[in-house]
From TrEMBL:
Family per record: Belongs to the glycosyl hydrolase 13 family.
Identification of the protein by name: Alpha-amylase
Catalytic activity, as annotated: Endohydrolysis of (1->4)-alpha-D-glucosidic linkages in polysaccharides containing three or more (1->4)-alpha-linked D-glucose units
Catalytic residues of the enzyme: 195, 220
EC number: 3.2.1.1
Keywords per UniProt: Carbohydrate metabolism, Glycosidase, Hydrolase, Metal-binding
GO terms for biological process, alphabetical: carbohydrate metabolic process
Complex formation: Monomer.
Lineage: Eukaryota, Viridiplantae, Streptophyta, Embryophyta, Tracheophyta
GO-annotated molecular function: alpha-amylase activity; calcium ion binding
Gene3D superfamilies documented for this protein: Glycosidases, Golgi alpha-mannosidase II
Sequence ranges assigned to domain Glycosyl hydrolase family 13 catalytic in this UniProt record: 28-375
Classification via PANTHER family: ALPHA-AMYLASE
Pfam families found in the cross-reference section: Alpha-amyl_C2, Alpha-amylase
Amino acid sequence: MAEPNSDSERGFDVASAQAGGVIKNGREILFQGFNWESKNNNWWEHLANKIPDLANSGFTSIWLPPPAQSLSPDGYLPQNLYCLDSCYGSNDQLRSLLGKLSEHKIRAMADVVINHRVGTTQGHGGVYNRYDGIPLPWDEHAVTSCSGGLGNKSTGENFDGVPNIDHTQSFVREDIAQWLIWLRKDVGFQDFRFDFAKGYSPEFVKEYVEKSKPMFSVGEYWDNCEYSPTDSSLNYNQDSHRQRIINWIDSTGGLCAAFDFTSKGILQEAVKGQMWRLQDVQGKPPGVMGWWPSRAVTFIDNHDTGSTQNHWPFPSEHIMEGYAYILTHPGIPTVFYDHFYDWGNSTHDQIARLMEIRRSQDIHSRSTIKIIEAQPELYSAIIEDKLCMKIGDGSWSPSGDEWKLATSGIRYAIWHK
């Protein structure tokens, strides 16, 4: 059974939402400002030079890599949370970048890695599960019992090879909340992305969002899609997959959005001549976008699925079809650094044009959608009755003289009135 697809149906009063919830107007376009190799460059200064173009393109928030000192250069094995000197640049360079973003009215999103933390000294069991000599000098009781600590059992999935933080401890939650408040009020971040959100209960995310009050927050709840046991093909029905993400969002009190991994998984198969996947049995989009669009952060690839890791890549020859889909549809779309800056001027300009059309036609996260065609080689839809789009090899255009072609490319076209 389909979930309610509006905030009002779920009992959320959008108009009176407090800071610390999801963005109110839903007209945001996010930019992931790094890839897996960004750690090898002077990244904060590099990004600072991109800010005028990012602002002109219409991005509202830039997701930055983890800012804290880390055992791994990518930032995803944090140790000293209050040290902002990293492989991406110095504390001063980061703060300068955030200041320039603020000047251009672009919010900065911190990648918050609080599922695990690398210790400084050996404790119980000979494991590096103590944090002596650095801020937040926790002992083994801050580490879950299933990852070598003396704390309680984990409330989520275990992240192997490193001490997992025990969020059931009140002193841990208070320290994390104060760190998030510091990132907001002192460092200059406005938004948060919660890494490996499967590792701890979403009720803790709710508490952290309520206390630190980011302008926007999104969780990485990356779960496997449903595949056929006979031939390993993607199942048409992914309701159980998107329901798990919906449940996670619900358990944060609706205060945190989630990346729409369901839509990504379906879309990257659909563009291979399986466009029928893009309409569920009730005639709606088949991802989280179709059930709770204001909490669905759509994307094509990120530093894990694409880049040099390439764990679950979108087919490269269909990238623009992917962006034609997410930048015209409900949800909160995200553009990946590689596609915008490393794939050439043509891809950059095509994405920027799609963003311009989204803004000019006032398409937002809660926009209504009517799917017209969902055939193997053709998908088309009308959004808010003022924008029409098609992707795929199939030939199609809307009927009526009121529709004017806004832009087109290989296997995609957009019209507006």
